[in-house]
Write a structure and sequence with these properties.
With 201 residues, the protein is mainly α. It has 10 helices and no strands. The chain is flat and about 45 Å long.
């Protein structure tokens, strides 16, 4: 079942902290590619060819597609991918908060978990680069929260599965983090005899 709804004061606190955390995401912005993987992602914006390692396997197709879309609003391939990561990094704070709430943390515990997470060195660093990590983290975290609050609702279960699939299209090697919540949700669906939803997912 979904966690308890937030009070107006709690919603205001969450939104305010999200905005403040969002401002900090502009501090670690990289001035250019830091690693060869970023160069491969940038090359894929112009010519997506996994066989030529643009980017390297498994191809990260959704990440590259998002970069191609962002390219219309930026001055370079690198900045297109970096912009996607900045947006994802800003959204990581409410995403981790949602995961903590789905695990039945109280409001302050959920805020603390989210604050600790978004200021971890790797989260902080990758948020200013052109790596696929921030977007992948965001999608898998949202999928985890969605699975845990889905109950026996086919619509919620399917929504969580679509988000997980999007995460796999961004960063497939991280899919293992969502296996446990997926298993919980799927067992619930089987017990409720929601066969069609499981097959569709």
């Amino acid at each position: 079942m979904p966690p308890d709804a937030l009070s107006p004061k709690q919603r205001t606190t969450l939104l305010s902290l999200t905005a403040l955390v969002g401002l900090t995401r502009f501090i670690p912005l990289s001035l250019g590619p830091w690693d060869w993987d970023e160069v491969l992602f940038c090359l894929a914006i112009g010519d997506y060819n996994v066989a030529a390692h643009q980017p390297h396997p498994a191809g990260f197709p959704l990440f590259v597609l998002l970069g191609k879309m962002a390219r219309f609003f930026t001055d370079s391939d690198f900045h297109a991918l970096q912009a996607i990561n900045v947006i994802a990094s800003i959204l990581l704070f409410p995403a981790v908060f949602a995961v903590a709430r789905s695990f039945r943390f109280d409001f302050l515990g959920s805020l603390a978990a989210a604050l600790f997470f978004v200021f971890l060195p790797n989260v902080w660093f990758y948020g200013g680069t052109a790596f696929s990590d921030p977007v992948g983290m965001l999608l898998f975290l949202i999928a985890i929260a969605a699975y845990l609050v889905a109950g026996t609702s086919p619509r919620r279960y399917l929504t969580a599965s679509v988000i997980m699939a999007a995460g796999i299209l961004v960063r497939p090697q991280n899919a293992v983090v969502a296996v446990f919540p997926w298993t919980i949700a799927t067992v619930r669906m089987f017990r409720a005899r929601r066969w069609r939803a499981v097959i569709a997912a």
